[in-house]
Amino acid sequence: MERNNRSTKMMIGLGVVLLVLLGRLFYVQIINESYKTDADNNSMTREIIYPPRGVIYDRNGLLLVGNRISYDIMVTPRQVSDLDTLALASILDTTADFIRDRMAYYKKFRTRIGWQTLTFLKQIDANVYMRFAEEEFRFPGFKGQVRTMREYPFNAGGNLLGYTSEVSPEYLAEHPEYRAGDFYGRTGLEAAREKELRGKKGWHIYQRDSRGRTKNAYRDGEFDVEAEPGSDVVATIDARLQQYGQRLMNGKKGSLVAIEPSTGEILTMVSSPGIDVSVLAEFGKHYEELSRDKNKPLYNRAVSASYPPGSVFKLVNGLVGLEEGVLQPWMQYPCNMGYVYTSSGRKLGCHAHRSPLNLEDAVMMSCNGYFCYVFKNLLENPKYANTEEAYNHWREMVMSFGFGRPLGSDFPSELSGNVPSSDYYNRYYRKGRWRFQTIISLSIGQGEILTTPLQIANLAAIMANRGYYYIPHVVKASEGVEIDPKYYEKQYTMVDPSHFPKVIPGMWKAVNAIGEGGTANVGHVPGLDICGKTGTAQNPHGKDNSVFICFAPMDNPKIAVAAYIENAGFGASWACPIATLLVERYLNGEISAGRQDLERRVLNTKLIR
Question: Which residues of 444-480 are buried (b: 16+ CB within 10 A; e: fewer)?
């Protein structure tokens, strides 16, 4: 009886297994045709359709980056058989040796390559491509491919726009949605907006005959996928102003950044020396030359270089002093060619000017001594227990201006600069062993503090807005392209807006009070009411750096600018002329007759040796 039960159970089990197998067979052969499709793969070929990459416009609708048709020859080495090398070389207008070398390379690395399809020849002539298309069936494993490549109809913003390049193995490892031979945005706007610009690839599936020739669409195109073009991007920059800024910066090393204060939109971002757009379309051919250039044209100084801000930082110390109550606009401090800060007579020097000065005139004349007094009062403020506590609060207020941290721009590779922490000084000098005299250089924007040109341009925008800024950005919202809501939000400093009007008259006088000792009179343009502040930042590697920030007009400002010129001396020498010429061109559309000699001097002088 027990044996019969065991036999019955075995029979039932076998029956269940048989039913499962029959059901699976029915599903595979009758219901699910994907297996049939897979089996047909040996007689099918898939042709990738590359979408046109989205184009880039400037804020006024001028085309900055467009597309042109490019023809490539692709190869799947595993599918190549009975190759007539001489015939293929003749059709493709190349040499048989080139083809043999490539095939030898594919054979050597056949395991690594597998069934990948690789680019055999890039950007061939259209006539060559058409000749190959007629004979393609003779060369199994080879096929033609049409795609779009970048073109640049307007010479503006090479570093800002960035370039595209073929994906690297490292990039493929992190981005499986790409395949060998694809292109992607590597730097600049191309990289920042890769997701929107690239679009989505499609494909056509064709049947092949026994000779490898492409015949009809498979299943009447049922499994084809249409490519989706990339979205167009509208940049915030003014292309003609950008181009003019590049001309002003030609032969100089540094940055020129202009912002619309009311929006935070970047109007101009020049890094000099930079990349000319003429090399972007075929960047790979020029990369080695550019990467070896001692002046580093690939390096976007506007966002990736850190410099001491110099005397433009006095504006921040003055405003913090007003907020903390240790400074009043009427307070006067003496300056006899500098500020003596040790018992041995050690002095932080200053240029000759009348003394004593109040806040407004100290800004106009950029007095070092005055702002040493201000910084001393900040760090020795009796409401704090010690220097370290006072310094920590000062640092917090400085960082609210956007220093010591990335601003959060949508432009890649933005550095943070540096506002040193008290921990840094505790490690360097030992806790409790440092005081105002130890870090006196911070009074005038020297010492350990470092900023990017974008950050000091943002300071100009803060002054223009009387206490707040919008995070600087280079892309405008448009159809298919959204920008982060944070770019619409006002970012307030920790200084009450009521204090800014106490400082701005000194900036106006620096430019417009002719004959009163202002450091930026060279930037005066009748009727524009430019407000500015010069800076001369010490440079341990050579001549001082020339710095200038400004905004205009004084009321309802339309533009805020920062110019930072390496090894160019006083702020009034080069940074001020360059920045104010840019402002004049933007607001008036031309340079007035009285400043055309200045313009010629700037355009024709090269400071790079």
Answer: bbbeebbbbbbbbbbbbbbbbbbbebbbbbbbbeeee
CA–CA separation, 378 vs 391, rounded Å? 8
User: In terms of Cα–Cα distance, which of 563, 514, 517, 257 is closest to 409?
Assistant: 257
What range does the domain containing 215 cover? 44-200+207-235
In 3D space, the residue among 156, 166, 261 whose CA is nearest the CA of residue 500 turns out to be 261
In what helix (H) or strand (E) does residue 541 lie, and over which residues does it extend?
none
Is the per-residue pLDDT at 405 higher than 70? yes
Cα 449 off chain centre by: 23
Same structural domain, 187 and 173:
yes
pTM for the structure as a whole: 0.85
Q: Which residues pair with 357 in a beta bridge?
A: 333
Between CA 46 and CA 33 the distance in angstroms is 18
Residue 205 has what pLDDT? 83
Indicate whether 28 belongs to any domain.
no
Instruction: Give the pLDDT band of residue 35 (cuts 50, 70, 90).
Output: very low
pLDDT at 9: 60
Same domain, residue pair 307 and 340? yes
Task: Report yes or no on 18 lying in a domain.
Answer: no
**Over 60: is that where the pLDDT of 30 sits?**
no
